[in-house]
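Lesson 9: reading folded outputs for more than one chain in a single document. The general rule is that every protein is listed as its sequence immediately followed by its structure tokens, and records are never interleaved. Here is the first one.
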Amino acid sequence: MDSKYFTIYNEIVSKIENGKLESSTKLPSENELMEIYNVSRDTIRKALTLLERNGYIQKIKGKGSFVLDIHKFDFSVSGLTSFKELSERMDAKSNTILAELEVIKADDYLMKQLDLSKDEDVWKVIRVREIEGKRIILDKDFLNKKFVSLLTREICENSIYEYLENDLGLKISFAKKEITVQQITEEDKKYLDLEGHTMIVVVKNYTYLEDASLFQYTESRHRPDKFRFVDFARRKH
């Protein structure tokens, strides 16, 4: 026979998977759950811990337990895909908000990331990606102006890659990626709907043209509960 906490766990999981408990819904307090299920606090805490461990809820200190979105968006680790292309594959309403667009001089950090000489011009593009009404990705793009002479608001709100390939005739070939989990920053708080999250998944992209020229450095900051990072691997024999 299942223990009491596991029975409670299964009942709540069923409600989440059937949509009876929607994403961001706050669960009843521990005291309320004790009354609902007529069990001890320890039993409720075991059920909540299991729910959190398996990705169904997030417990936020001082606020309670909240249902997570279990329908995550697949983000290919090995692919080189624009947000517009990703959006077209998803059955979800999406929107791009352009926060910054300017030409800047490369500082020491960008010189290192883009392999530039001092004071070379770089496009700085800050875009917020909104999916199903939630701002969940912050994209910080830096493009070597030597390869991209012009960018406009319209281009950035549509697809930079589409413009580079179709209008400029550039051939985007490959990228090196680094994925880390970091503490959120004030910039993340400013632009994203974090809903209590204190960590963020950062994907750094170093993108190259067909002739192996490094032309773009991107820092893409994802809310951790909304994405599933996927890849395909084959063992060599």
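And here is the second record, again sequence then tokens.
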Amino acid sequence: MLGPKKEFEGVLLVDKPTDHTSHDVVARLRGKFKMKRIGHAGTLDPSATGLLVMLVGKATRVSQYMMSVEKEYTGTVVLGAVTNTQDADGEVLETRPVPELSEADILAAMKTFKGDQYQIPPMFSAIKIDGKPLYKSARKGEEVEREPRFIRVMQYDLKRWESPELDFLVRSSKGTYVRTLAHDLGQKLGCGGHLKNLRRTAAGDLNVANALPLEEILEMPLLDLEKRLLPVHEVAPRIAL
């Protein structure tokens, strides 16, 4: 006679590949664990890579807490071209020459984005207005008025400048659209710009260095994978399950 089905519990750190939505990762892990009670603590765009914090079993109860922690990203901005999605997946709407910019010029522009502020979400996003996701309206060429959202940018650093590309590191509050930061930085510099690539490197105290690639996770025996599940009380000590 078969015993009760094993219920796994804990936090799993996944290094998300490109061309996967966050929900794709959830679906594949549900198949791996043979459990439905699996979610994530913060979406990544399909083209973005890096840390996806997966909540397995009862760990889904700390979803709101885990989504509220600050996030850290690295990425690349291409100046001189504006796209309709604010990233490299979109259609180029406008090109402008990139002026002679020094690192000091770029750092001065980045500094203006640090601190508390309101950010207008991009049209190509899953935010719903009147029950309809914005990206559906955007695909029809429609522009919908969006309420600015409060965000906080704690860190926005330049890591490399080689015109027309710059590498950055940003640390910000939940709900920050990094591709909008890239777009707005281009506007601030007078030539426009878009996000070329993005990688989430940290969420709160959790770091992508401790994550496993999705394909590696899917090939692991379940007993080995269970050992990779972090106890919830270690990840979210202030939350009682």
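What the second record shows: The two ends are 32 Å apart (CA to CA).
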